Amino acid sequence: MKSHNIFVYTILAIGIFSIPSLLNNVQAQTNSTNQTSAQNQTSGQNQTMSKDTKALMTMDLPGLKDTLMNAKQSLANGDLEEGLTQITDVENQLLLLKTQPSFAKDIQKIKDSLSKKDNVKALDDLTKVQSDVLKAETELLKAQLANPMLAKQNNAQDKDDEDDTDDGGGGDDNN
């Protein structure tokens, strides 16, 4: 009987000492599963995004929208040269992208309309481009709401972009 009690106590001691190790393994597996799930969700979210949204994720979206609006205002005010300059600036930004958005072709249509002095058609096409950009931006924001990891990635990328655009100036604004 005494040897039976020693055997039972030994098994209990081994079990008690192995519990922390077992808990660490369970926690590691849970963390691994959560990370894999988050990565799969991010890649799944990227796969369901439109081509335009994927392209705009790598751009300075507020700057693009401002440039488009400035071009539209210039064209509406009859300043074709300034409008064409702004449109060409947008076209250059789009040409640098690895994935071309669908509205990149519309930029050339706008330039063609301007060369034919058809400002109304150019303004209509410009409005269509702005609409496409807003749709892509809305899709991007929805994706970021559904997946906060995507928003963190974009914020980190935006921070890198801000660091890259430092002009190195001393802050003098002498006009």
Labels describing this entry:
7 helices; 175 residues; Four Helix Bundle (Hemerythrin (Met), subunit A); mainly alpha
Task: Describe the model.
The protein is an all-alpha fold. The protein has helices at 2-48, 51-56, 61-76, 80-95, 104-115, 119-146, 148-164. α3 (61-76) packs antiparallel against α4 and α4 packs antiparallel against α5 (104-115). The chain is rod-shaped.
If classified by CATH, what would the architecture of the domain at 51-163 be? Up-down Bundle
Percentage of residues assigned to helices: over 70%
Count of beta strands: 0
Radius of gyration: 28 Å
Which parts are unreliable, with pLDDT below 50 for 5 consecutive residues or more?
A: 42-46, 166-175
The span between the termini is 99 Å
CATH fold group of the domain at 51-163: Four Helix Bundle (Hemerythrin (Met), subunit A)
Order of helices and strands: HHHHHHH
State the name of the first-level CATH class of the domain at 51-163.
Answer: Mainly Alpha
Strand content: under 5%
For the report, how would you describe the main beta sheet? none
Shape: rod-shaped
Mean pLDDT: 77
Determine the number of helices (DSSP H or I, runs of at least 4 residues): 7
Output the structural class: mainly alpha
